[in-house]
Amino acid sequence: MKLVNNGMKVQYRSGGSGAVRTMPYVQYLNYCNQIMLSCCALLALELALAF
Question: Which of 14, 31, 32, 41 lies 20 to 30 A from 25 at CA?
Fold first, then answer.
């Protein structure tokens, strides 16, 4: 994964060795935030069930 166009886009390979794909950096950050919020929700659920 690397930044292109002065950091405006993220370039990566699908599956690590597939076709080269690009997406806007803002969209990449949005996906990362969604994953983090999902992890936090899962942790909260597991803690609620444990206690």
Answer: 41
